[in-house]
From TrEMBL:
Pfam families: Abhydrolase_6. Residues 81-338 form the AB hydrolase-1 domain. InterPro entries: AB_hydrolase_1, AB_hydrolase_fold. It comes from the Eukaryota. This is AB hydrolase-1 domain-containing protein.
């Protein structure tokens, strides 16, 4: 049976069931929560002698995290910022902050490979809390001071939510760009999310990833499945402005079939997905304001036309958390982090409290 407005996951004929389900799965895994980062194909051993080329720190549990720095030196910085990349990305994602602004505001920026990504070691015990503690330990080892800013991009924003819950005393401020929505958050009313096809899709992929990971791995690496190029400009996931952006930046280097055949790559993406959309130990919509004396230190940036993260649900989140400032890009899709001038606006709002009035929130969400 085909339902209006939903992908046909269970076709009538058995001969079509595997192929169509696999196509939906591949499209979703490659398209959802991807941030189109301008980065080379990830390679943990990308130097001629097989030794990682990026600086790394050793954590208490023996794992290494790779990182890159830009901006002014730490000892001269007035603002230290950690940027958390999204699904299938890395520390090499391009955060388009103007150098003039970085120099003017004395900003130090740290980007790192989350566990299992790029040149960082996998974490077989990845959890919401481990993501926050990785950030805290990385900041301590690099002597970033008692407080620092965190900017989470797309699915990397679940680590930012985790920081707000587990290490709020270490935060100078936070910003989330097209942040992930977990439909299992208990504060979501059923009437708000019941008709969202994304919810059903995520539930289905979680079931496959949890109970049939080998089958999932086999499916998404088969030659008869469509290539990632089918996804890159797919209007099911990206609006026109996103599609224009994808014409000038590289595609899905970590999500090619060759990379997905590597067990460590597949396991990293699977585990990341499972944590992001699994049962959280806390309800983000019930978090307390860690910045009670300054209302300009927590922000969410969202595209109104985002087809991956619904703007309607994002508005509901910030209505429940009035201490988070909501900025909506009227013609924005999911790849707003790559829109010209937006990273500058994000930094000015976070560090200076300046608001671009082009990004005003829309009317409140009515929930019956």
């Amino acid at each position: 049976m085909k339902h209006e407005g939903y992908p046909q996951i269970y076709p009538l004929f058995p001969s079509e069931m595997v192929s169509r389900a696999a196509i939906v799965l591949l499209t979703g895994l490659l398209g959802m929560f991807y941030q189109g980062s301008q980065l080379p194909p990830p390679n943990r051993n990308n130097s001629p002698d097989g030794v990682p080329v990026s600086p790394r720190v050793k954590l208490r549990d023996g794992r290494y995290l790779a990182y890159r720095e830009k901006g002014v030196p730490k000892d001269q910085a007035k603002h230290c910022i950690i940027i958390v990349h999204g699904f299938g990305s890395s520390k090499d994602m391009n955060f388009l902050a103007p150098q003039e602004l970085i120099d003017e505001l004395d900003i130090y920026i740290l980007q790192y490979d989350r566990a299992g990504y790029g040149e960082s070691d996998p974490n077989p015990k990845r959890s919401l809390k481990s993501e926050a503690l990785d950030i805290e330990e990385l900041a301590d080892q690099l002597q970033m001071g008692s407080k620092f800013y965190v900017i989470g991009v797309s699915m990397g924003s679940y680590a930012t939510w985790s920081c707000l819950n587990y290490i709020p005393n270490r935060l100078a401020g936070v910003a989330m760009i097209a942040p992930v929505i977990n439909y299992q958050w208990p504060s979501f009313p059923e009437s708000l999310i019941k008709e969202d096809y994304r919810r059903k899709f995520i539930k289905w992929t979680m079931w496959l990833a949890n109970y049939f990971p080998r089958l999932l791995h086999w499916w998404i690496t088969q030659k008869w499945l469509p290539s990632s190029s089918v996804v890159e400009k797919n209007p099911a996931f990206f609006n026109q402005r996103d599609i224009d952006i994808l014409k000038i930046i590289p595609g899905f280097p970590m999500l090619t079939k060759d990379k997905l055949r590597e067990q460590v790559v597949f396991d990293t993406l699977r585990d990341d997905w499972m944590v992001a959309f699994g049962n959280w130990e806390f309800d983000p919509l019930k978090l307390n304001n860690p910045f009670p004396h300054n209302r300009s230190l927590a922000h969410i940036w969202q595209g109104y036309e985002d087809k991956v993260v619904p703007s309607k649900i994002q508005r509901f989140v910030t209505e429940k958390l009035p201490w988070i400032q909501y900025h909506e890009v009227p013609d924005g899709g999911h790849l707003i982090v790559h829109y010209s001038g937006l990273c500058e606006d994000i930094l000015k709002a976070l560090l200076l409290g300046e608001e671009n009035h082009s990004f005003r929130s829309r009317p409140q969400v009515s929930v019956s």
